[in-house]
């Protein structure tokens, strides 16, 4: 057991005018299963890099003797076999320990002898985690392991992690966090919070605290208004007292003692100024007590109405292939206006291929899309589609140019980004400089700002923070939009989908 101590940490990237962390202090135990979450851009990955020593903390981080190692590994030759790579990743790893860890993740020994780049994303994730936990000499720092894992893979990895002790895990998957961790580290707007329990424990405590703070803020704002009004009246009395020494009252007889009136006015003005200053100080103190409540504004979506009686799309005995190899089908399904259909199934069963084929049939060409080997895909006449792809890493240029390129209403686009947690200062940055979560938000905001009959999203929540997921859930449920989407966040699917189409490992529709 070791204690990680972070004392008065202030960190800013070179060339940036804004601190990622400002005078932050907290501590935690390395034997905890510590989950970490927070808005995109709040510094979660930066914190991992500070803890691992990839960034200089200026002596603010004390590790207590542990050796941190980050997941995912980087900077290695993916053409090598995992068996060869282990000595690069964790030099002191023992082969028999890796075999034990692989069995807990339901991976066969065979994956050790294949070139790393030939493994699926799920196999690569499980393999790296097995390597990390096969050494007692390291403290794992795990950055978003659920990206591109299917539902079964997430369940397997969450059960695996729940059997371990001593790691820090960044994730935005609510069910995954609840299953895998026993403490939470939450990065909010002005503070960091550490508490015992999983995501649901923190969410319940956050709701209770925000209700109390909202009530407290409302009371403080009333008091501030009252004090501001009182200060304003005091200023008016002061001005009146000063002016009265030069004005004769109607019917006043004889000589006016200007000295006496001036003395009296000066006393009144001094008392009024003192009262005004005291009231202003009190108002400022009340303003300082206003709580930092992390809020998320509701998003808005106005889908194009589909005034026809026909389905938006229909698939009849559809079989898809790549290079003559069948990847999906047969599938028979249709989507009616207002339905939100989730495509579920293991990695590699053809979910993304099916989405691409639908877009192609609707008149939206897809590079490297599948071939319609058999069957028929019918899209409604004049169907307008808005799509978000899995990968957001190819974005370049500035936000305004991106908006023009996609024919978006710039004001609406920026408003959506602001509501999803973008700071105004980030609008001036180039897209390639943003975090993976911020890039994905740019794609989502572009899709939401595009009028469409049908929204098609392929794993839209990869890298997206929990507050934004909740915003998007609410938006989808309230908008009445028609959707076809792939997503492995179980809570999101449960809360948004009106219908589920499951594909088997071979890509066959097993539940229309």
How would you describe this structure to a colleague?
The model has no long low-confidence stretch (mean pLDDT 84). It is globular, with a radius of gyration of 30 Å. Helix 3 crosses helix 4, helix 5 (151-162) packs parallel to helix 6 (174-180) and helix 11 (410-419) crosses helix 12. The protein is an alpha/beta fold and 512 residues long. It folds into three domains: 3-189, 3-Layer(aba) Sandwich (Rossmann fold); 225-289; 313-511, Rossmann fold (3-Layer(aba) Sandwich). It has helices at residues 44-52, 82-89, 95-104, 121-133, 151-162, 174-180, 199-244, 258-289, 351-361, 399-405, 410-419, 436-448, 466-479, 490-496; strands spanning 3-11, 21-29, 33-38, 61-62, 68-71, 139-143, 167-170, 183-187, 192-196, 313-322, 325-335, 340-344, 371-379, 385-388, 454-458, 482-486, 499-503, 509-511.
* CATH H-level superfamily title of the largest domain: P-loop containing nucleotide triphosphate hydrolases
Largest β-sheet summary: 6 strands, mixed
Give me the side-by-side strand order of the main sheet.
5-6-7-3-8-9
Radius of gyration, taken over Cα atoms and rounded to an integer in Å: 30 Å
Average pLDDT: 84
CATH architecture of the largest domain: 3-Layer(aba) Sandwich
CATH class of the largest domain: Alpha Beta
Span between termini: 51 Å
Global shape: globular
Please report which band the strand proportion falls in: under 5%, 5-15%, 15-25%, 25-35%, 35-45% or over 45%: 15-25%
Global structural class = alpha/beta
CATH fold-level label of the largest domain:
Rossmann fold
This entry's quaternary arrangement is: single chain
Percent helix, as a range, is 25-40%
Total helix count? 14
InterPro entries: AAA+_ATPase, ABC_transporter-like_ATP-bd, ABC_transporter-like_CS, ABCF_ATPase, P-loop_NTPase
Keywords: ATP-binding, Coiled coil, Nucleotide-binding
Protein name: Lsa family ABC-F type ribosomal protection protein
GO molecular function, one term: ATP binding
């Amino acid at each position: 057991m070791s204690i990680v101590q972070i004392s008065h940490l202030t960190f800013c990237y070179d060339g940036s005018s804004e601190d990622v962390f400002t005078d932050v202090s907290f501590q935690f135990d390395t034997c905890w299963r510590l989950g970490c979450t927070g808005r995109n851009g709040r510094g979660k990955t930066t914190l991992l890099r500070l803890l691992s020593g990839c960034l200089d903390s200026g002596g603010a981080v004390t590790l207590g003797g542990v050796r941190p190692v980050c997941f995912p590994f980087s900077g290695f030759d993916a053409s090598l076999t995992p068996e060869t790579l282990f000595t690069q990743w964790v030099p002191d790893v023992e082969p028999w320990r890796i075999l034990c860890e692989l069995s807990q993740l339901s991976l066969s020994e065979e994956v050790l002898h294949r070139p790393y780049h030939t493994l699926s994303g799920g196999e690569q994730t499980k393999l790296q985690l097995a390597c990390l936990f096969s050494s007692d000499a390291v403290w794992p720092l795990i950055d978003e392991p659920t990206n591109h894992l299917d539902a079964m893979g997430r369940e397997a990895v969450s059960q695996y992690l729940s059997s371990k002790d001593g790691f820090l895990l960044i994730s935005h998957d609510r069910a995954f966090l609840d299953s895998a961790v026993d403490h939470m580290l939450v990065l909010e707007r002005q503070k960091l919070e550490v508490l015992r329990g999983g995501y649901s424990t923190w969410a319940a405590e956050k709701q209770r605290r925000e209700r109390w703070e909202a009530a407290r803020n409302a009371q403080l704002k009333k008091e501030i208004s009252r004090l501001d009004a009182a200060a304003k009246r005091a200023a008016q009395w002061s001005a009146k007292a000063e002016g009265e020494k030069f004005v004769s009252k109607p019917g006043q007889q004889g000589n006016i003692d200007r000295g006496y009136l001036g003395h009296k006015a000066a006393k009144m003005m001094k008392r009024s100024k003192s009262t005004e200053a005291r009231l202003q100080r009190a108002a400022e103190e009340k303003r300082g007590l206003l709580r930092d409540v992390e809020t998320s504004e509701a998003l808005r979506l106005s889908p194009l109405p589909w005034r026809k009686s026909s389905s938006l799309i229909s698939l009849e005995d559809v079989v898809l292939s790549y290079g003559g190899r069948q990847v999906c089908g047969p599938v028979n399904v249709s989507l009616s206006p207002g339905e939100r259909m989730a495509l579920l199934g293991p990695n590699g069963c053809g979910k993304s291929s099916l989405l691409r084929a639908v877009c192609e049939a609707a008149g939206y060409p897809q590079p490297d899309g599948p071939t319609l080997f058999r069957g028929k895909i019918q899209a409604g006449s004049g169907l307008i589609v808005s799509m978000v792809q899995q990968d957001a890493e190819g974005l370049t240029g500035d936000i305004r140019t991106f908006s023009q390129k996609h024919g978006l209403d710039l004001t609406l686009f920026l408003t959506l980004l602001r509501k999803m947690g973008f700071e105004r200062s980030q609008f001036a940055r180039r897209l390639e400089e943003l975090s993976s979560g911020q890039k994905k938000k740019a794609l989502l905001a572009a899709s939401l700002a595009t009028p469409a009959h049908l929204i098609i999203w392929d794993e839209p929540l990869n890298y997206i923070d929990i507050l934004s997921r909740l915003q998007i859930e609410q938006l989808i449920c309230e908008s009445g939009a028609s959707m076809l989407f792939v997503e492995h966040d179980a809570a999101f699917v449960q809360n948004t989908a009106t219908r589920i189409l499951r594909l088997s490992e071979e890509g066959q529709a097993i539940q229309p």
